[in-house]
Amino acid sequence: MLPPVAIVSGGLVLASFDRAIPFVGPGGIQHPIEAWTLWTPEDWAALCPGWTILRLVDEPPTVTGKRAVRRSLSDWTVGADAVSVTYELVDLTAEEITAAGALLQQQVTDAVQQHLDAAVRTRGYDSMATCVTYAGEASVPRFQAEGRAARAWRSAVWDRCYAVLAEVLAGERASLTPAEMIAELPPLVWPD
């Protein structure tokens, strides 16, 4: 069986392997990495007596403001066909909260910028920055109107984005994904 796996003996987890590596079996015998791919269940029983190899289920919980810390092997849950890793949720440190906020802000603002650029590409502009330069274009009224509409929309989008991020970072509302932020933004309305 390929990792991730847990080795169980007598109902207790002895070790876990996230990847295939050489390992020491019962009696201190060194076994090669090939054991993970070449050994049959009969090989495991003969070469590592008393060991049961079970699938490892490792799904850390995610809770806003908390960090999942793996509990010790003795606290893991041994089932008939798998071992489940258990976790303890601990409060984030001030440094972790600051770092998580900075990461969220970067991810959201990157996604919003990509959303702005993608929206104006539908009218042939290469980016929002290029599109808004046409707001002052007096010689071609269509470009001027589109540039003004895009500029006004850009301002409304960033205003909404930063207001939502401020609420999230202040703990006034739940965190959100970049896609959820995009869904909350006002739509772009092009001039006729």
Number of domains: 2
Mean pLDDT: 94
- Give the H and E element order: EEEEHHEEEEEHHHH
Number of helices: 6
Order of strands, main sheet, comes to 2-1-5-8-7
Gross morphology is elongated
Supply Rg: 28 Å
Task: Draw up the topology in text.
Blueprint: E1 5-9, E2 12-17, E3 23-24, E4 30-31, H1 35-38, H2 41-47, E5 52-57, E6 66-70, E7 77-78, E8 82-84, E9 87-91, H3 94-121, H4 128-133, H5 141-169, H6 178-183
Parallel strand pairs: 5-8
Antiparallel strand pairs: 1-2, 1-5, 3-4, 6-9, 7-8
Helix pairs in contact: 3-5
Question: What can you see in these coordinates?
Answer:
- With 192 residues, the protein is of the alpha+beta class.
- The chain has 2 domains: 5-91, no CATH class; 94-183, no CATH class.
- 42% of the residues lie in helices and 19% in strands.
- It has 6 helices and 9 strands; from the N terminus they run E-E-E-E-H-H-E-E-E-E-E-H-H-H-H.
- The strands form 3 sheets. The protein has a 5-stranded mixed beta sheet, with no helix packed on it. The chain has a two-stranded antiparallel sheet with strand order 3-4. The protein has a two-stranded antiparallel ribbon with strand order 6-9.
- Strand 3 (23-24) and strand 4 form a beta hairpin.
- Helix 3 runs antiparallel to helix 5.
- The protein is elongated.
- The mean pLDDT is 94.
